[in-house]
Amino acid sequence: MNAIEFILAGMLAAATPFLLAALGELVVERAGVLNLGAEGLMAFGAVLAFIIVYHGGSHLLGFVAAGLGSAALSIVFAVVAVGLRANQVATGLAIGILGQGLSALFGKTYESLTVRGLPKFAFPWLSDIPVIGHLFIQDAVVWLSLAATFAIWAMFAYTKAGLVVRAIGENPKAAHAVGYSVIAVRFAAIAFGGTMAGFAGAYASVVYTPLWADGMIAGRGWIAIALVVFGTWLTGRIFLGACLFGAVSLTGLAAQAAGLDVPSQLLASLPYLVTIIVLGIISADRRLLKLNGVASLGEPFER
Amino acid sequence: MRALFAAILPTLVRRERASLTATLLAPAVALGVATIFNLGLYVLMGRDPIAVFYAMLLEPFLSWASFSEVMLKTGPLLLIAQGLAIGFRAKVFNIGAEGQFILGAIFASAIPVWLPQATGQWIWPLMLVLGALGGASWASLTALWRVRLNANEILVSLMLSLVAAQLLNYLLLGPWKDPNGFNFPQSVMFQYDAMVPILISGTRINVSLLLTIVLSMAAWIFMQKSFSGYRLQVVGLAPRAAGYAGFNEGRAIWLSLLIGGCAAGLAGAAEVAGPLGQLQRSISTGYGYAAIIVAYLGGLHPIGIMVSALFMAALYIGGDNAMVSANLPIAAVRVFQGSLLVAYLIAVAFVRYRLEWRLSVYRSQP
């Protein structure tokens, strides 16, 4: 397997934690709320899933527990930031620190233990194509994440629910005047975002690298938040961004396999450096950000 | 089909003015709530809550030996939080103090690592200056990205912290590793003149605590009395108005980040030239992140921050105690910190708002 095949084979799986968390954050931000707790929500989901699977639960049960647990933690964020109108930045950071702390606390006795991953399914015919065929051999969660990407795109493009969420993010006062409950929709969006972050964490801890280590989320929650900006709040671009980061995070392994003599610390910081650079490039185009950005992002709603 | 339905819903009503008592009481109430939550968690984990409470929250204050360690830990937290709070009031959210702290420690260590034989009373002061420069230069990258490229400072400063941690690893595993250090990832032990002098004999408290307190006073004067500080606050409260009045947002961002970076870098330098005496992987136990909590718990006010820094430092020492005496993982400290900030934000909401139960009528959409 050469480097290109290696990256093609692993890219989607590596992208999945970024993608799931970023899709959740996208819905939250489209509703006008900035939730900076994604890293902690992911870590919390990751530890819950790991504990369940380690004690013999199925992967499905692990994902369910991670989704519910992170959703519950994100509801705390919703109560404080949306219900009580606290500063969203401070609240998000607080929930993030709390989630990371809880994950370290619960995961303490599981440090360095491993679980079984998930089998991969090949897409008939397509997986037989040389080189790019590797793209079509993935585990069930990757396939479901692709479906989720499509579903969220369709929701925003074609459904009334998507329109309501966007209206509330653009102009909550107007949406309220028309009769929608801004608070209820924002709570629902935040709970959805929390669930997705929980799934993202679960994928990282019981499928992608099925082992527990404190701090294993390693900034992926933050990169997911950055991905929403990279994608200028558009589902398709967020998917492409997640693939880019999947590929970048594999570059380290590929470079080592190719025998390149680069310090491992440089390879480890590659995703962060790429985030900084891409964030600068995308943000510099203010027109682009304005075009698709969310007008009332981060502002508390007061009627 | 349209339907009407009504519900009695809790509604927040803004108070005419927040009372001073309530403002001062909020952190205390938050502390009480967070304590109950955490003790509940320890009970679920099968620990004795009384023993943990004693070890974690009382013991740090009960002996001079413990309390002097609390004061030692207060230094970096206080310094970083004062720097961050100035930015937070201008709505510049630098959450990368951890990285700025690490760069400060690295810059300061350059002298004893490269000149291990040097002597003279100039060494430790120069190390502190270099540390402040290191922190400020790391923060200036975030400022550049924010002002020039319009990139979100929260994300950039955090990513730079993660890069800084890798840079530290690289130095300690590579060029700066102590050749006689039995392969441990740490630098050489610093020479005597590279150490900040001890302030109170019999403890590890050094002159940098004095410096930190002086800088805290300076932060208070800057924020409450100076024109620059006033302008920063206006930029935070009403950016548009500040713009019309000719206050430049870009300058506020540069100033906020440079002050925050200097403070964090100085704290990093004081840590390696103080209690540690060498550059190690574990130079920071999350000071940069904990300082964010310290800043908010102190109400972003220089005096409040002095109290909250002391408390947060006690929590660190108490966490160490509880690890030994009650077999509690050190992660419990992080959980306590996070839940404390959540409780505080809730408490502060009730300082600003009253809860009223009101009848709401909704009409379902066609």
Automatic annotation (TrEMBL), chain A:
It is a multi-pass membrane protein. Pfam families: BPD_transp_2. Its main location: membrane. The chain crosses the membrane at residues 6-26, 33-54, 60-82, 89-107, 140-158, 178-205, 211-231, 238-260, 266-284. GO terms for cellular component: plasma membrane. It comes from the Bacteria. InterPro entries: ABC_transp_permease. Coiled coil: none annotated. It is found in: Cell membrane. Keywords: Cell membrane, Membrane, Transmembrane, Transmembrane helix. One of its GO terms (molecular function) is transmembrane transporter activity. This is Nucleoside ABC transporter membrane protein. It comes from Rhizobium azibense.
From TrEMBL, chain B:
One of its GO terms (molecular function) is transmembrane transporter activity. The keyword Cell membrane applies. It is a multi-pass membrane protein. It is found in: Cell membrane. It comes from the Bacteria. GO terms for cellular component: plasma membrane. It holds the Pfam family BPD_transp_2. Keywords: Cell membrane, Membrane, Plasmid, Transmembrane, Transmembrane helix. Its main location: membrane. The chain crosses the membrane at residues 25-44, 51-68, 99-116, 122-147, 154-174, 194-222, 253-274, 286-319, 331-353. This is Sugar ABC transporter permease protein. It comes from Rhizobium etli 8C-3. The lineage of its organism: Bacteria, Pseudomonadati, Pseudomonadota, Alphaproteobacteria, Hyphomicrobiales.
